[in-house]
Amino acid sequence: MAKKPAAERKEQVKAGIGTDPAFAYSALAGVADEMVDNTGAVRPVWQNLLGAISRMSEKELHERFARADRYLRDAGVFYRAYGAKGVSERNWPISHIPVLIDEREWQTLSEGLVQRAELLEQIMGDIHGENRLVNEGFIPPALLASNPEFLRPLVGVKPASGHYLHFLAFEIGRGPDGNWWVLADRTQAPSGAGFALETRVATTRAFSDIYAETPVHRLASFFGAFRNALQGMKQSPDGRIAVLTPGPANETYYEHAYIARYLGLMLLEGEDLAVVNDKVMVRTVAGLKPISVLWRRLDSGYADPLELNQHSHIGTPGMVQALRAQSLTIVNALGSGVLETRALLAFMPTISRQLLGEDLKLPSIATWWCGQKAEREQVAKNISKMVIGPAYSRMPFFDDNGQSVLGSTLRSTAKESIADWLTTDGRKLVGQEVVTLSTTPAWVNGKLLPRPMSLRVFAARTENGWQIMPGGFARIGSGDDVAAIAMQSGGSAADVWIVSDKPVERHTLLPAEETFMRNMPGSLPSRAADNLFWLGRYIERAEGALRILRAWHGRFAESADPTQPLLADVSEYLGVIDIDTLEAVPESLLRNIDSAVYSASNIRDRFSPDGWLALNDLAKTARRFHETVSPGDDASHAMTILLRKLAGFAGLVHENMYRFTGWRFLSLGRYIERGLHMTRLLGHMSGPEAPDGALDMLLEIGDSVMTHRRRYNVNTARLTVTDLLALDPLNPRSILFQINEIHHEVEQLPNAFVNGQMSPFYREAMRLHSGLAVMTPETMSDEVYHRLEQELERLSDLLAQTYLG
């Protein structure tokens, strides 16, 4: 049945959501295909949401959308965008109006996707096994022989789990006629499941009341079932499960860290792993520990530089051999990227009938591989209705960064020569029918406008077979052009609600049993310990610099004379540690804060959102002050603000971080750096040749002015300042306090004792502690401070050699 004219459909939509002439009626600038059926009537699944929106004022809607945006900002949800100006981190671009799909329609879609997942599993098994599909002519040999994703070392390697594929994603679209088809299969390392969760949370912040009263299927059961499946793939009780990430530079790194934290898995990089006796082990502070399952988020070719891409710096040598020995399960199996080949879509209907004995329940977008004469002619004949793109691309055309050519945009002369191009390069090209996607309502400039959309849907192999996530997320175009759906092209993401006509279960990842078992946190990877240790050092280094600079600029504000003996002396000291007092907020201070942010970014799975937000706020404020603040009183005030922000971050970490091995390395970094800071300062400023006012400035930098007044009934003197800042075990700024804390933390570290003997690191910490504990203020000299500085640096080196190598 033909659709009614737009104006009539708009009126019917209004009639379908009520009679109240509220704000949303005037905002309904266009009718989206997803909202109405072929007769123009509002789909029942949309009526409750549209009715609720119609009763809201523009102000209320903006307030609701602001709640969603604020949640995403506070949670630090970002993706990495690549453009002409380089790489930048951008907030997750949410389209606030969810996409609603009826449960019955979703069930039909799910059946088609489950069938497709099983088909892809069988194709993967054949390609890496008997290769019948090629031998019998169902897949052209060139599609494998010339395919960069066909990894020959993996041929014949059978997965330990018995399956090649465990977690998939599908890009699907609906045409204006209501029919769905698959735009692309994601089998390599599908991304987006974590973003789907965060988009769901943000959307429910905007529409919490509507969501609560709408029977929307929850997402937790999907992740719980997949986590159980991962646990079931462990080959031994002590085997570990981890998410393997390319690292913080990856565009979806936030999601890797989020998923690892959400499911309670380790987050590892290739350098964290080693293959020993055909087994994959993770380097931890307690030694090598076995890995049973890796959920990889890097492309197959980069996983093993020994047998695959020799230029890879993010893989683990020997990974393929571990797979041959069946000591490891990788999700998904290496080599599965070959299934994403765009040209393979042309052969899926025939392959389905061959392997499954049935037609595809959910067809692919019409595709022709131009390596065959009849197909080339078909594409050339209908070029105006085609998009031409790389045959081996793994992306739909709107994601391939302009590699595809839209036939309708070609000039007449170009169209005439298209046959020659297809004949010359046909094996490298595919033609696909131009996609016309259905539209969904999006809030744009105060109006509900129809925008094209595609869905990314996820499938997980569980103990009960393939399970489809009840939702996923929709990619919404920034304009009418389908190519604008891509995030890199300005597209946004919307939550997808699968709505039932009856109450739905509210699942959780927490166990239902009343009894529980307290599991200790997993082993700490050496790389994570290294980043925690240096995070502590950089934060403390920044704090030390801030305290010195605040004292210097406070005195400079009074005299405006940097050649004054005390200011000149401190400037000389700061120059040695690369801090320029001519800059109100020195570049070197920014580098220390940025280094702290970088260290924290490498351990996002171990970092609370509040801590991450506080650290980034500190970095942004410091950068702003660097550009706007002048030396003197303004700089002193700026340092106070930065110290408060830094103290807020330190307080969040101190109050919220679990007191286990990771905490100890963070603390050790802080104690060693604070000890070095105070040792150097006392060695420079407490000697007999120190200028007037140096001792008072030392007390101010050490935040010990009030304590000194209470403890010593005399004016500042070298012995009292030395006693308080070097040897007082109760002063959290003193050197001895840091050494005491180091000694306490070292006792709790793994392998502090080896075969009943102290480790070299523990022995050095004990020696340093006992040597300083017997000192008196009278015996503290420049030579002693210099030796202490060297011993603290040696202690840091020993820690690295013992735990971080």
Describe the overall structure.
By secondary structure, the protein is an alpha+beta fold. The chain is built from 28 helices and 22 strands. The strands form five sheets. Strands 3, 4, 5, 16, 17, 18, 19 and 20 form an eight-stranded mixed beta sheet that branches. Strands 6, 7, 8, 9, 10 and 11 form a six-stranded mixed beta sheet that branches. It has a four-stranded antiparallel beta sheet with strand order 12-15-13-14, with helices on one face. Helix 14 runs antiparallel to helix 16, helix 20 runs antiparallel to helix 21 and helix 22 runs antiparallel to helix 26. About 1% of the residues have low confidence.
Which labels suit this protein?
805 residues, alpha+beta, six-stranded mixed sheet, 45% helix
Question: What's the layout of helices and strands?
Answer:
Elements: H1 6-16, H2 23-27, H3 44-54, H4 58-75, E1 78-83, E2 86-91, E3 99-102, H5 103-127, H6 132-135, H7 141-145, E4 167-174, E5 180-186, H8 193-206, H9 208-213, H10 220-232, E6 240-244, H11 253-263, E7 266-268, E8 273-276, E9 279-284, E10 287-296, H12 319-324, E11 329-331, H13 348-355, E12 367-369, H14 373-381, E13 386-390, E14 405-406, H15 412-416, H16 418-425, E15 429-433, E16 439-444, E17 447-462, E18 465-468, E19 473-476, E20 492-499, H17 526-559, H18 565-576, H19 587-601, H20 609-628, H21 633-656, H22 661-685, H23 694-701, H24 705-711, H25 718-727, H26 735-748, E21 753-754, E22 757-758, H27 760-773, H28 782-804
